[in-house]
């Protein structure tokens, strides 16, 4: 079908444009350094170093996705509108909903690639573990295969950039995925002293579930960023994404807590003293609407479950994943509505 070809072409072009952006490489390098530094940082705790490491690592990956979603969405949508280059696309003709969806899919692909890139580094660092004492041995397989993959990665990136003029950041991200994945899979079968390990004890499925939920949360933020960038500039888009992120992380405290307090208070009052239009019911309705409209990112943040060593069941994931996809669809629908009425000529 013609619209599918147009959508795939837009997605491919957006993907290539986004992955070459300097912000992608800069964010990836900063995230890489912070994940590595989380090992010595975790040593400052008094008892549970691994808990601190997981919190720092997942927070780093999440914040990198938040920053990239705003900058990438602004670059591929708002900048094209301001430079009038969007006219060459919508005049093909490409329907505006296809334009918005294609831009989102391109941004989403880059977000997933960078998140998985950082996630594999986090998984390798988690296999190495923290060093609570000076006598704790280093994990030799992780250091060997991890740094070997890193050296090969940067060597190939520099070589291809110098000889073939390939984009260094795009090469590093694209080639790093299979290299780090291979290094991670090999390290699963070895103990720190090169003895054969049982994969069932080294593989941590809950960590991968938490990483997958972070990816979904970043896709939600990416959809919100694309929707906001159809009308706002880079600064306001970044502010919108950060405000949505902060409100979403505090949703339970801002809205659910207040709803529970109002419900308890209304339950104690006689029915004769209550009406649907009194101040208490109107306040309850306001908080209920805000709770429904503002994304609850606490559903995607599973660090607390990991640190408390609780199993993340598939029943929970089966509930959170549809919620995330509904948020994405709603954000893209809003972005399409805003873009339909945007003058681009």
Describe the structure.
With 345 residues, the protein is an all-alpha fold. The chain has 14 helices and no strands. It has helices at 2-19, 22-42, 49-82, 87-90, 96-128, 140-164, 168-187, 199-202, 205-229, 234-249, 251-268, 279-293, 303-307, 314-340. α2 (22-42) runs parallel beside α7, α3 packs parallel to α9 (205-229) and α6 runs antiparallel to α7 (168-187).
Relative strand content: under 5%
- Category from helices, strands and their pairing: mainly alpha
Please give the share of residues in helix. over 70%
Summarize the main sheet.
none
List low-pLDDT spans.
none
Q: Which of globular, elongated, flat, extended, rod-shaped describes the shape?
A: flat
Total of domains: 1
- Mean pLDDT value: 84
Helix and strand run: HHHHHHHHHHHHHH
How many strand elements? 0
Number of helices, where a helix is a run of at least 4 consecutive DSSP H or I residues: 14
How far apart the termini lie comes to: 28 Å
Radius of gyration: 23 Å
């Amino acid at each position: 079908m013609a619209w599918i070809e147009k959508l795939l072409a837009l997605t491919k072009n957006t993907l290539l444009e986004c992955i070459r952006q300097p912000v992608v490489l800069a964010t990836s390098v900063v995230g890489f350094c912070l994940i590595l530094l989380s090992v010595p940082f975790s040593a400052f705790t008094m008892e549970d170093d691994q808990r601190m490491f997981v919190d720092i690592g997942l927070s780093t990956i999440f914040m990198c996705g938040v920053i990239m979603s705003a900058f990438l969405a602004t670059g591929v949508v708002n900048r094209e509108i301001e430079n009038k280059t969007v006219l060459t696309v919508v005049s093909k003709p490409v329907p505006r909903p296809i334009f918005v969806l294609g831009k989102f899919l391109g941004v989403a692909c880059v977000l997933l690639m960078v998140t998985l890139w950082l996630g594999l580094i986090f998984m390798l660092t988690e296999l190495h573990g923290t060093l609570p004492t000076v006598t704790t041995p280093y994990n030799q397989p992780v250091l060997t295969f991890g740094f070997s993959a890193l050296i090969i990665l940067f060597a190939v990136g520099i070589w291809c950039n110098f000889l073939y003029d390939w984009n260094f950041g795009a090469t590093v991200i694209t080639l790093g995925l299979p290299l780090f994945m291979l290094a991670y899979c090999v390290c699963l079968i070895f103990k720190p002293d090169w003895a054969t390990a049982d994969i069932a004890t080294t593989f941590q499925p809950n960590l991968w579930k938490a990483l997958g939920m972070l990816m979904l949360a970043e896709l939600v933020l990416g959809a919100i960023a694309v929707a906001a960038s159809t009308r706002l500039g880079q600064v306001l888009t970044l502010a919108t994404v950060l405000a949505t992120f902060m409100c979403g992380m505090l949703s339970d405290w801002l809205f659910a807590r207040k709803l529970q307090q109002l419900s308890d208070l209304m339950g104690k009052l006689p029915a004769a003293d209550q009406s649907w239009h009194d101040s208490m019911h109107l306040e309850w309705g306001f908080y209920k609407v805000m709770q429904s409209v503002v994304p609850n990112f606490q559903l995607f943040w599973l660090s607390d479950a990991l640190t408390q060593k609780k199993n993340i069941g598939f029943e929970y994931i089966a509930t959170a994943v549809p919620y995330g996809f509904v948020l994405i669809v709603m954000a893209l629908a809003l972005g399409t509505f805003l873009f339909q009425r945007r003058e681009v000529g």
